[in-house]
Design brief:
two-stranded antiparallel sheet, eight-stranded parallel β-barrel, 10 strands, alpha/beta, 281 residues, globular, TIM Barrel
Length: 281
Amino acid sequence: MKAISSFYLLILLLIVFDTNAQQKSKFTDDWKLGVAMYTFHTVSFPEAIDKVDSAGIHLIEGMTFHRSGKALKDSAISQLSPSGIAQIKKIAENKKVEIGSVYIGGGKTVESWKKEFEIAKQLGAKFVTAEPPVNMWDSIDSLAGIYGLKVAIHEHWKGVSAYWHPDSVLAAIKDHPNFGACADLGHWPKSGIDPVEGVKKLRGHIMAIHLKDIAEFNNTKIQDVTVGTGVVNFPGVFEELKKQGFRGNIYIERDAETKPSNLPSVIETVKYYNKEVKKLK
């Protein structure tokens, strides 16, 4: 009888261990690493896709103001016809790159927002990232519901964006069920906000992360640096995201254009991200 009990106890322990191992891997498996295409904004969309592919990444956040390439007369994606949008989508598909979301500029009218929602929908995006005008919250929330594309509110820094502080993002989200947050880790420090605290404040609302670093706090004039070389506490951010049960996209993004391109920086960030995420327990 003792031998049988010990056997079942061993089986139970193995099941618990396996379940814990699955849970441990699951939260990081559901963190999808990609690139925000602003990282390669100085080149056309087809050229940028080539760079994304070279970095071994298969997920992007597109942007409607990206140049479309010579075959489409280098028009902004927002100015393309439906057939042109289909060509843009095909360029990504040919490299097995998923367009997870699209950053949309929107505009000052409902019609301008509607047009960009339509583009994002045609590109196959799961949501859009934007900074909607405060006086258009209700209209844009309604459009998001119609198109089935939630809005991840992005933050620039103080003096540039209405959303420089997490509290302003929460104010927009309140009573707008189709709004969430895109936490830009490199922009917050420019306004003196600790990214770990910003992520904590937005608990339960974060749809995506812009993985970005900055050299110092409280300086709106400096440009970003390669992830892991600045002041952002990424291990703290990752630990907090784990606690929150975050499931979403983490987009590497560079604002500054380094020479010869941002590709080496992106590759370094992939290595840094993988190293830090493996440390999570």
